Amino acid sequence: MSFLSSQSLLPDYVVINDPLAENTDVLRIPTELVQFPLDEATRTVIRHLEAKFDQTENCGGLAAPQIGYSKRIIILAVEDDEELKKYRPDLSDTLPKSIWINPSYSPLSSDKTLDWEACFSVDNLSARIPRYTHISYEAWTPEGEKVSGTAKGYLARLIQHEIDHVDGKLFIDLVPEEEWVTWDEMRKMRDNP
After folding, report:
1. Which of the residue ranges 19-23, 29-33, 62-66, 82-86 would you say has the lowest mean pLDDT?
2. Is residue 75 domain-resident?
3. How far is it, in rounded angstroms, from Cα 109 to Cα 35?
4. Quick check: bond before 103 cis, omega within 30?
5. What angle do CA 5, 8, 9 make, to 5 degrees?
6. Catalytic site residue 162?
7. CB contact set of 96 (below 8 Å; sequence gap of 6+)
8. Torsion, Cα of 49, 61, 96, 159 (10° steps)
9. Which of 55, 63, 117, 143 is deepest in the core (most CB within 10 A)?
10. SS3 call for 89
11. Nearest Cα to Cα of residue 74 among 8, 24, 138, 6
12. What is the Rg, in whole angstroms, of the alpha carbon atoms belonging to the chain?
């Protein structure tokens, strides 16, 4: 459910490699913990984040810094989708659309999986990123209820990617620049292994 009546009210994505983008520092500074009960400014961030997520195609997750807010809030969803499984064969765990506040994770083993990542905050770049294969996580809902659990495969990757955002990190920070490729190059490599 989206709380905004007009998509024109939504902030643009902050894109680190767009020379015209403003406020790119928000992508590089770790966010502070959100305090409960939530104030109206934080509720507005949640409404904007959910509406942006809902309007964006092929969006598994989004973090508040990606739309210009230095808040420790993410939104994510993973469905059991046959089309997605073509590109994410490790998709096993699912999650209904969830808004998480002050999320964190811990690896449950040292095992890592290498797979492609891209990001709305990094225009036209992709890379194969190592991520922990199996993690535990915890967060709080906007209502202040604690959520915790474990995730593996693609869901674990998505959680790590979004939590990196609220920690001031981007996927391109995790591998050398010579390993970055364009989206077209990634598609060719992914589709013709």
Report:
1. 82-86
2. yes
3. 31
4. no
5. 70
6. yes
7. 77
8. -120
9. 63
10. coil
11. 138
12. 16
CATH number reported for the structural domain that contains residue 164 in this entry: 3.90.45.10
Instruction: Indicate whether 146 belongs to any domain.
Output: yes
Domain limits for position 47: 11-191
Q: Find, among 9, 11, 127, 134, the residue nearest to 64 by Cα.
A: 11
Give the residue-averaged pLDDT of 68-93.
Answer: 90
Residue type (1 letter), 82: E
Catalytic residue among 40, 79, 117, 162: 162
In a domain, 1, yes or no: no
**Residue 3: inside a domain, yes or no?**
no
Here the tokens at position 182 are: 């364009």
Percentage above 90 pLDDT, the chain: 80
Count up the domains in the chain and report the number. 1
Beta bridge partners of 138: 104, 148
For β-strands 95-107 and 73-78, DSSP reports them as: antiparallel
> Shortest CA distance to 149 belongs to which of 79, 96, 112, 111?
96
Residues of the chain by 3-state class (helix, strand, coil), percent to 5: 30, 30, 40
- Return the residue matching tokens 């990001």: 119
